[in-house]
Automatic annotation (TrEMBL):
Family note: Belongs to the CCR4/nocturin family.
Stretches for region Disordered: 16-39
Gene Ontology molecular functions: 3'-5'-RNA exonuclease activity
Tree of life domain: Eukaryota
Organism the protein comes from: Marmota monax
Name used for this protein in its record: Nocturnin
Keywords, alphabetical: Hydrolase
Amino acid sequence: MGKGTRRLYSALAKTLNSSAASQHPEYLVSPDPEHLEPTDPKELLEEWRAVLHTQPPRFQREFVDLRTDCPSSHPPLRVMQWNTLSQALGEGKDNFVQCPVEALKWEERKCLILEEILAYQQGILCLQE
């Protein structure tokens, strides 16, 4: 795992510990603490926002609350699905040839993805490419 990945994992682990997922510790894998740096998710989020300060503001998402009138003792669970955007999308290898080249730069793209992951504090994260 690269340094950035370890920092993200550390930040996500902190947010998971305060989420609904922390109610089921049998599903959480404890990482080797020697390989993780303690990272504050808010600090990491601000760092990525600083990198992206020249970009247009991110789309503000509205969430759908699926709870009905039935009271529940369980906290709500937020699920996030993210398509990380394949490199082929801007190279004419598929039908998405109008994707701007700058949108494919990994240094910025990864910051956009990580900003979204940290900003919405989901309980379940699904990544696809």
